Amino acid sequence: MIRFNNVHMQYRGGYLALKNINLHIEQGAMAFIAGRSGAGKSSMLRLIALMERHSRGQIIINGQNLERVRDSRIPYYRRNIGFVFQDHRLLRDRTVFDNVALPLVIAGHRHTEIRKRVSAALDKVGLLKKESLNPITLSAGEQQRVGIARAVVHRPLLLLADEPTGNLDPALSLDTMKLFEQFNQVGVTVLIASHDMEMIKKMHKRIITLREGRIPTHFGNTSANEKSD
Amino acid sequence: MRSKARNNPGMLLRAWLLLHAQSFIYSLGQYYRNLLTSILTTAVIGISLALPGGFYLLLENAHQITAGWDDSVQITAFLKSDVDDAIATELVGRLLEYKNIEEAKLINRDQVLAEYRELSGFSEVIDILDENPLPSIIIIKPKLMTLPDGVDRLIIEFISSQPEVEIAQYDQQWVKRLYGIIDIIQRCIILFSVLIGFGVLLIVGNTIRMAIYNHRDEIEITKLFGATDYFIQRPFLYTGFWYGLSGGMASWALLTITLQFLKQPVDRLAKLYASEFSISALSGTETIIMLLCGVFLGVFGSWISVQRHLKTIELN
Fold this sequence. Notes:
The complex is a heterodimer of chains A (229) and B (316). Chain A is of the alpha/beta class and 229 residues long. Chain A has one domain (2-219): Rossmann fold (3-Layer(aba) Sandwich), CATH 3.40.50.300. Chain A contains 8 helices and 9 strands. Chain A has helices spanning 41-48, 74-78, 96-106, 111-124, 140-152, 170-185, 197-203, 224-228, and strands at residues 2-10, 16-25, 30-34, 56-61, 64-65, 81-84, 158-162, 189-193, 206-209. Chain A has a 5-stranded parallel sheet with strand order 6-7-8-3-9, with helices on both faces. A 4-stranded antiparallel sheet of chain A has the order 2-1-4-5. In chain A, a hairpin with a 5-residue loop joins β1 and β2 (16-25). In chain A, α3 (96-106) packs parallel to α5, α4 (111-124) crosses α5 and α5 runs parallel beside α6. The relative contact order of chain A is 0.21. The model of chain A is unreliable at 223-229 (pLDDT under 50). Chain B is of the alpha+beta class. Chain B is built from 10 helices and 4 strands. Chain B has a 4-stranded antiparallel sheet. Chain B is elongated. Chain A binds chain B through residues 46, 49, 51, 61-62, 64, 75-81, 83, 89, 91, 93, 102-103, 105-111, 150, 154, 157-158, and chain B through 1-3, 12, 14-16, 18-19, 22, 33, 217-218, 220-229, 231, 315-316.
């Protein structure tokens, strides 16, 4: 599903964010990217989402070589990815329902289809009753669940989450992670960047540790080749 | 990852129409939600369009007043004061033989005096005078309605060359000058309108730029969830459309109110000049053209702004 071969990534200012990354995550897996702030976690997610382009190496996502995805095709490429953010990034000028409906509206689905799918997604995160509220009136945990509903409503193949529990207390964090696990169990590949090692360890999933833009093998990382076989 | 292709063209068309309808309504909602900004922008566009529109109407009405004036171009020949009626009549005969003269009519000095007395209101002053100071005149109508410049002058030269004639001149010389001035003003208005058009583009562009930055979060999120540039720019273009349309309507309203305000005094003045003239308002076609101009400037202004500013939004 996700394959990095000798990937380097340099930001425009010259800062080298990722160095020689080799990685393979198979379809339907759930994995964590761990590491301190600035270790390159977000950069990896940005590369996968094509928010940035890598400078060397090769990235293949779901059989598609990202170098070959033209800028004009990026929107269509992204429609198979769901995003969850630390600050959830819900839009305050519209209801919970309209927030969750966004990916479907973008893809041009019909109204009846949108209603059905949004209700299903909100039901899964347990917020069906709050669909007509403004997200500001919800608690932090609820807002994050709305964010997750939005990330899965269009049934993406891949779910990317950048510090999804960064603003939540440990109990809520675990609940949120369990939610990700549920979506993973129905076949969505899940990749979560987080620095919360304690919580990550509780999940018993694969952990990819980044340090200063590299994946050091002595951090308990399984090397790319080992895992992919 | 390839997007699940929905190849049915009917469905694609429906989805496309649906997106347009959504943007259309949504942008109208945005107009209402940012009412103050919207009204200000509308007012600026309205006033901007009303200025050239008003000048245009002014010219149209000026044309209406002066229409027909050049049909009645005539030459007045003032005769020397020692020319008596018999010689003058003989002169009329000679003038009528000239090929470019249609009509020549003598008004002798007594008639001139009578007419002057009646029209000027100085009858008492005239009574004081011992003798009639006014000359006899001959009113001459050239044969051709509109004369080429050369022939024009030839007629005047011919008449002036008659020994009995003191001076001959076109009565309506000033009409020609007026037309010349109107022509210049017309060109100025065209230039002015083009400049105003640029101004409106900048104003709309700037308003849309602010709207784009106010919707930064939304644009970033929609981009991340796979929105194309077309999807993102559509509501802004429709917002420009609404600004343009409402601006066009505002300028129409401004002009209509102004004309109503002026109508009564102008009618009264026209009556004093025994004229049938009445201010003409914008016709249906002109109104539609005005609205279209507004819409064009609104959409084009926002399009420029969208092209410039949407690209600068980086995802983070």
